[in-house]
Structure formats: C-alpha cells, structure tokens
Amino acid sequence: MGTDEQFNDMDVQEYDAVFSLGSNCQTAYQLRRLSLRREAGPLDWFVSKNIDQLIRLIDARFAGFMDLGNLEKISAFRTCYCVRDTRYGILSYHDFPITEKEADWALAYPEFKSKLCRRTERMLQAWETGERLLFVRVNGGQDDGDRLYYSLKKQVKHFFDLIIIDTLADENAPVSSWAEPSGCIRYSIPKGKDWRGSDGAWNKLLESIRLRHRLSD
User: Fold this and answer.
1) For the stretch 128-143, what's the b/e string if a residue is b when 16 or more beta carbons lie within 10 angstroms of its beta carbon?
2) pLDDT class for 52, splitting at 50, 70, 90?
3) pTM of the model
4) Cα separation of 170 and 173, whole Å?
5) pLDDT surpasses 80 at 216
6) Region 6-29: what's the mean pLDDT?
7) Between 149 and which of 40, 57, 61, 184 could a Cys-Cys bridge form, CB atoms 3.0 to 4.6 Å apart?
8) In terms of DSSP bridges, do strands 80-85 and 209-211 run parallel, antiparallel, or are they unpaired?
C-alpha cells in the first residue's frame, strides 16, 4: 500500500481517518456502513468521474470548490436538482431541493456551502496532522492510481495509503488486488445490484482496516 509498507490482507491496518475520493456515493455509503467514516468528507455524496478534474481539485486544495458563481443547474433528480461545478466538473445530486419556482434552486446554497466548508477543513486538517490516512476511490483508468497517489503525496504531510476499487459486471468475480508502481493498491470486485455496491465484496476488501483514534475537529 504505502511506499514503506507491504500490503498484507492478514495484517490489521490502522488509520487516523478514512476519506472517500468518489467517484460516486457508493464509497461513502460503504465506509459508513463499515464504521470507517466517523465524519463526512467533502467528496462523499458527489459524482466525480473525471480523474483529471479531481487531481486539479486536490492540487488546488479545494479552492473555489462549489462556489456559487461556478454552479450550473442541469436537471431535476428525484427530490433535488442535479447541479454541476463547472470549474471542477463535479456533480451534486442531493443538496439542492426542488423548489416551487425553478429560478429559486439556489436557496439552499448558504447552508450547503457552510456544511461543505466544514467537511473540506476537516480533510485539509487531516492532510496536515493525520499520521496515517487512507483514501478510497471507486473506479479509475489504467494509470489513474499512480497519478492520484502522486497528487496526494504533494499535499499529505505524513503516511497515507490509496485504494482504487474497480467494479465488474460479473457478480461471481472474485475479489482480487494488485499494486501499482506508486504503491496504490487496485482492487476488482463485483459491482453489486445497485448504487450501494456489493456488501460482501466490501466486507472482504476492508476487513483488516481499523480506525485508530479521532482527529480533533
């Protein structure tokens, strides 16, 4: 996993915090279900499929993320509007409730932005003070793990690990893993029946992961 440790499925790996890096809500859902997510992170409930834009966001330390002037309402999705951050290409599906007048879609913005700032500061603080961090992302291209790892390495002051999980349509596919040159660990698992993914595969994948202690807010 990290450059100074050899990954071993049998060893318990302890972290100060575990953060989702997208690319969808499955990551945050599974981390919460497995009690590996004490507090929310800034990317938990967004869709962030473009790795280049995610790396730009990390390199910028989330500067301008979801600023009102960069937001574009795209469509309605169930009870909320789908809203896109045009600077980073990241989509919100859960933060802007559908309003009686469509022009009022941004009424929820102040509360949303306040919540997002708290989550962003939590992650930035962890980058500075966390002695052992774990970042988890669902789905990525062939070299995305290495690129994302080196972007994080420029920001995170201490030890961290990065896991990228590729989901497969074959529900009988075994959970498998391999290391990339950077030290990023790639997994392939069955994608599951819906957006939440395969609980059994995630159980196996993260069965050796534990949280050490709570980072100060």
Assistant:
1) eebebbbbbbbbbeee
2) very high
3) 0.91
4) 5
5) no
6) 86
7) 184
8) unpaired
| Residue 156 neighbours by CB distance under 10 Å | 17
Output the 3-class SS for the chain: CCCCCCCCCCCCEEECEEEECCCCHHHHHHHHHCCCCCCCCCCCCEECCCHHHHHHHHHCCCCCCCCHHHEEEEEEECCEEEEEECCCCEEECCCCECCCCHHHHHHHHHHHHHHHHHHHHHHHHHHHHCCEEEEEEECCCCCHHHHHHHHHHCCCCCEEEEEEEEEECCCCCCCEEEECCCCCEEEEEECCCCCCCCHHHHHHHCCCEEECCCCCC
pLDDT greater than 50 at residue 65: yes
- How far, in whole angstroms, is CA 19 from its chain's centroid? 6
Tokens of 165: 């999980």
* In contact, 201 and 192? CB cutoff 8 Å: yes
Categorize the per-residue pLDDT at 174 as very low, low, confident or very high, splitting at 50, 70 and 90. confident
| Side chain identity at residue 34, one-letter code | L
Q: According to the model, what pLDDT value does residue 144 have? A: 93
Q: Are 96 and 111 in contact (CB under 8 A)?
A: no
Amino acid at 107: L
- Copy the structure tokens of residue 32: 């919460």
Query: Around 201, how many Cα atoms within 13 Å sit in the side-chain half-sphere?
Result: 26
* pLDDT average, residue stretch 56-79: 98
